[in-house]
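Q: Could you fold this chain for me?
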Amino acid sequence: MSLKNIFNNSWVVNILLLIVLITVNVLINLQYEPITNTRLYLCQSVSLAFIYVMCALHNKFMLQILMHGRYWRYFSLLAGWLTLNTVVTYLLRTNVFQSDRNVIWVGDLVFAAAALLIGIGLWFLYRGATFQTHELRNSLLLREKELQYLQSQLNPHFFFNTLNNLYGVSLRYPNKTPELILSISELMRYQLESSRKQLVPLEDELQFIRNYVHLERARVRQRCQVNFKKKGHEKDLMITPLILIAFVENAFKYAPSSMSASYIKVELEIKGEVLHMKIRNTVPDNKQSVSSTGVGLNNVKQRLALAYAKRHTLITNEENNIYYTELILTLDRHASTPLPDRR
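A: Sure. Below is the predicted structure, expressed as structure tokens.
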């Protein structure tokens, strides 16, 4: 049995806590009584163990009665509980161990009541911590499910767009079709493999974007000037897969125009663990006629909110037929940690 499973066992935890309490009690009493006074130490240890067990039984069974609003029943049982503990600890002290026989039973009652109050307080602290842990676990599971669902939408969306691009290129440049099919197969392979992982190396993700830009350049040709720049080092940085491509796709979707000069500028800068991406692209007047599923950008905004909460800034703006996108991400750094597989 692993150490984690051992400490998940309530019996083990209770026994260890009782040992700690008895040890602390002995250490405190050593300042006033010699260790040779075995009757005193045995009496206090047995009494403490009995009270501890009774407090555990109280918290497990009697508190449930109180939580359900059965107050009279609880207080009647509580009176019996205090009486039983007082009588047992008094008899242990005076008759069994014959220690402190001159002390009246009121001290045993006060000790039982104090132990009960401490036990109830610890129980509520434990209950609150357990509840928060449960809520956090459920929240993380829900977040994971949402991310998986959003990421699963990328496959058909990306496939839809690349097929549209391939169709357009094949009509104008049929001799380029075999090469583009091979490029698309590489893009699809990475897209399928990375979508099963929570994090991928940033250098792989940026290579995927370069390949996509190369594919799109073949499609737009002279209709659009494409510029892609990267500064900084991406080594050891990890990123949620396919979270940048939607912004690049969006630029290629709207920028190319046969009626006027158009351009796309993609600039990536990496400083430490911060990735700064800027995209500027022209927007034609008839952009409403461009075919779009509407999935890509809405999807990636939700994924950013889930995967990079409080770790990203996204600014989009359109002015004078120029669309600006600026994304700042604080990434994770893992030098040699294997990637989790979500298959």
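A (continued): DSSP finds ten helices and eight strands in the chain.
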